[in-house]
TrEMBL record:
Stretches for region Disordered: 973-1016
Keywords: Membrane, Transmembrane, Transmembrane helix
Upper lineage: Eukaryota, Metazoa, Ecdysozoa, Arthropoda, Hexapoda
Membrane-spanning segments: 868-889
Record has Secreted as a keyword: no
UniProt source species: Glossina brevipalpis
Pfam families with a match to the protein in the record: fn3
Protein name: Cytokine receptor
Listed InterPro entries: FN3_dom (IPR003961), FN3_sf (IPR036116), Ig-like_dom (IPR007110), Ig-like_dom_sf (IPR036179), Ig-like_fold (IPR013783), Ig_sub (IPR003599), RTP_Phos/Ushers (IPR050713)
Annotated Fibronectin type-III domain residues: 216-316, 524-624, 628-716, 717-818
Cleaved signal peptide residues: none
The keyword Transmembrane helix is assigned to this record: yes
Record's compositionally biased regions (Low complexity): 997-1011
Amino acid sequence: MFSGVLIRVVVVLSIDKMDPTSLSLLIGENATIKCTLSDANSSRIWFYEERSRRRIQQPSDDIQILDPFTAILTIRNAEEQKGRYQCKIQAQAIGVSEVYVGTKPTNVTDFKCKVYDYEYMECSFTRPKNMLLTQYELQYGTSDDKEKKTQSEDRCQVEERYRVCLLQDGDDNKFYCNITDRYFPVRNLYVFKLTARNDKGKNEQCFRIHNDEIVVPAAIEFNINNITSDSVMLKWKKHNVGYYPRNLKYRINLRDNRTNEDKDEYVNWNRSAIIKNLKAYWPYAIKIQAKSMAVDDDDDTMWSEATEKYFNTSQRKPDRAPKLPLGSFYIYNTETQLRLYWEQLEESEQNGPEFHYIINEINEDDIIINTTRTNDTTIAFPYNNNHIRTFNIKSANILGESEESNSILVYPSGNSNYLERQYVLNENSIAKIYHNKSYTLSWSPPQNIKDLLNYTVFWCLPKIELPNQCKGPIHFKYINKNEINFTTEPKDRSLNLAISANYPYFNKGMQWAQCSGDVSSELMKMEIEVSAVNDSAILVKWNSGSVCASILKGYNLRYWLPNEQGAKDNNNATIDLLREKQEHRNYTITNLRPYTEVCLSMFMYSPTKQGHNSDTKCIKTKQAAPSAPRNLNLVTGSITSKSALIKWEPPAIRNGELTMRKSAYDAFDKTITSINQTFYTLTSLNSYSNYEVYVTAHTVDESKPSNRINISTLIGIPSNPCNVNITENDGLITWDPPMLPSGRLELYVVALIRSSNDSSEIIESISLTKERSCRFRIPECYSAYYSYSLKVRAVNIAADMEYDHEIEPMSRNLTLDGGQIKKKFCIPDQEENDEIYDKFWFSDNTKFYFASPWTYSPRVYKCTSTPIFAYIVAIIMLGFLLGLISYWLRSKYREMKDIEVILPEALVDQVSKYKFGNNSLSQSNATDVSAACKKEIHTQISRNNDCLVNFNQKENHQLLSNMFNGSTNVLTSLSSDNSGEKEEIENNEELTDEQQSYETTNEELSSNSSSIPRTDCSYDERSILQNTVENTNKNFGIQVSGQDATDDEIEDFNQTVTTDLEIPRILPMSTGGYVTPNTLLLASNLNTTERPTVISMQTSNALPNMKNGYIQTSAVKQLMLNINIVHVFVA
């Protein structure tokens, strides 16, 4: 055990902080906020209230020092607020505490719901004002349809469990809740429980909402049918009235689109309505809304959303002719002209387009002798004082004339003083007096009062300088014959008045009131007209109205420029026009500036009175050309290869409304229609070009040009070269430079293209040149599917500040389109050094490339199909022939490779020098093995047992080669001395002489068959014969057994070998190159120096005494007597 002291180290990390960081209080409560420092410096703590911007510093009753690190702020009797208090040391803020002062949750007063066409319900309420953060939860459920007269808590009972309705914030502190999935239109009573919570309390409210009483129908889809000139039929689709307990009613609002007057019509139950008493050829708007009859009838919010459509009523002929009051004509004092007046029909009575009036003059036989059309309400005819004239007036539009017409009779004035005294008013007694903004017309009655029917009084707005004519329509009123005056309605305006005395058989027509000659009468307000004469003058016209000019002293005309300070009070703008010098009816104010607004007013005055000021009229002088735009300059950094941004200041003197500004550069004019625009981007410029730019301003005329500036655009992408042409004889390609160089055109790229039938292109060669021509050579054709052509592109090279950075420059490889440069492909006539290639490839990274699109030459070189096809056929045939030869040689090679050699008896003694299988025979046992092999050969020839020769050993390679080469001794390579040194035999004849011949009979073979164990010359691995696939790469060898095998074992083994080697007789080459045992059979049984014979197993049926592919000795002897050399190839 170990004893010791356990030391506990506690490290306290002190930081500046305020506690709490958030504080909720009820109104009137007290609270404290603690501020803690990391240093002992609490005496310097002070607090700052952000809401009132009040600094609370020590010493103060509100701050208490708790310890050297902590100070406490006390908030007493807190007022409703959402404030922040900061704890500070000098100017450094330590922390902030947020203080919320409010109330417990209070009741919601405007909770309401609406159901929209029994599809879903939406409820909303306004959050009561409270500085404390208050959370609301709304739950709902359904109840039975009977109001429970129980305690209030039972009002929250629902049939099933409550479900929560998710509240969403809206505008104006509103919450919204939509009930869609769990809304059931067949349930009439919904119960809502609203729960409000904050840090100081909780409040619950229950609301019972009757489904049928809050339904707002869907918008009405209606059609407008059967539109006539005075009515229209409306039809709409039926609502799903099955849910509406008391059905629906509809409100149809018809609005006059010209007067904006509207009216409402209501329809219950029906789904159609006919609106009548419409004006013809008149635009209307119709709105239709629906409302459930179960909701509060006074609640307009329960109407459905209005569906509005527009239509025009049809046209029809005017319904009536204009009214022609008695005496509505005037005969000029010269009695040369007659003017008729009639009522003007209102626009709503015209009933169609192209409205006009038709005036027909009818003779005594009711035949129309003259027809006149006019759009005005007055017309003049030549006056004829010889007979009574009848005029018939109708209204008409594009559909035709009104059915009715009104007539007026114009009587001749005659020369009888009797008529004048009896039926005509005395003109001197007709007077009009202006007072209190009204006119009073007075007259003396004619002498014949008895036959007088009545008077017609006419009034209208006067035409300036034409006191007896009307400006606009004329108005009239019939006055009783006993009246002698008439007063117009109070309107502060000048009027022309006239009167006619109406008799059954005579009418003088209209007699105009001339003027008032009473000096003491009130002077009326003048009517003036102003017009602009030119860009420096205006014309003022007036008349004195009902005041006789003889009592007037003059007119006071005052004008001023409203845009100039104090201009109206300037006395120099007042002109007095005195009548004693000249009778004035107009005046021209001159020396004004162009397009300057001038305001003026006038009044007339007599020696004793001053008339009322006329209405103020303002007008501008006509426009003139403005001054030139100022300070035209180029915006720095705005130049590109195609554009530039310019700016200017507007003209100092506009002299009118600037309708456009024109920017001119070279041969281009650009018009700017925005008058407030003082900048413009010049576009469609040519790259690497110089321009001179100026700006003009326009009103009615064009200003002088502004100052001129010069602009040079940046280098860009050139257009493609033009007119690429190839001369056939000398292989010369030429081209013209691009129409838009867009730069210096440092070089051209010439590319040779190889195209194939699948439209793919490969660039085979590329050359660079400064010239616009070079000589080329088309390569030889390789395929009939290929064709060759040339293309050319231009290239600009620019430094960083010279090119347009809005254009992405090309890399060198992209400029070449991925092709490979070959300088000798296209050579210009004028020698060029390698400078152009060096400049292209070895320029630094500050150079950027811009290549034009390619221009293709029209000449295409197509490869012909005949020679290529011949080449292809020859190549295919040659390949086929080589394949056959190769196959034949390979077959022979494999056949020869699989041949096994059985040594002749004379060479058996040399076997110790060679390797059989994987074993090398030593000199000591070579003789035994050779003897065993020789015995095996002679005794077991009928059983297919042979010693195998491994062809993989170098020492054995020459066995087969000698045989294939026709050598007379296939075993030449086996001849050697006892020391192991190899001796080459110079020629086959010497070897033939040295070899001894021998013969062996069947009896000798049989006698020796049992003296040598068969296992001495058996195959190395029997498993190879049984499982050749698994051991294909293993070699056969010679194994020596320590004991003799029995005859049964030997026979079984021989049968196995014979069976395995029967098909095929020749083992595959993959077994190590061993050959079948019979291939070199005769080499050991015959005099091989004289007869090197190879006999195939295919000839076994043709040769006598042949078993299992072996030739018996007797048969061999017979063959050797008859055949000198037999060559049989192994199949």
